[in-house]
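Colleagues,

For the teaching module next term, I've prepared a clean inverse folding example: a structure given as tokens, and then the sequence designed for it. I'd like students to try predicting residues themselves before seeing the answer, so please don't circulate the second half yet.
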């Protein structure tokens, strides 16, 4: 599966962990969004903060995510194995 779909032409602004980003590709995989923030999808999951929900909506790396204007994403570190 490709990381993103065709650009829309109109860039949207959004944040990942409080850092601002822009893209013209409104649909991207969660892994591609994490890579925009220089985060390794093997170590982090992507989640979106929506409205007043107490828990973020979590995405799998291969999930196609719709990026809306002003979207707020956070990275969630996966648990490391303990030796």
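(Answer key — instructors only)
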């Amino acid at each position: 599966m490709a990381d993103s779909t065709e650009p829309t032409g109109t860039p949207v602004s959004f944040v990942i962990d409080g850092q601002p980003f822009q893209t013209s590709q409104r649909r991207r995989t969660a892994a591609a969004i994490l890579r925009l923030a220089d985060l390794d999808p093997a170590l982090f999951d992507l989640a979106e903060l929506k409205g007043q929900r107490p828990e973020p909506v979590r995405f799998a790396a291969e999930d196609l995510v719709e990026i809306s204007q002003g979207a707020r994403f956070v990275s969630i570190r996966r648990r490391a194995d303990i030796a």
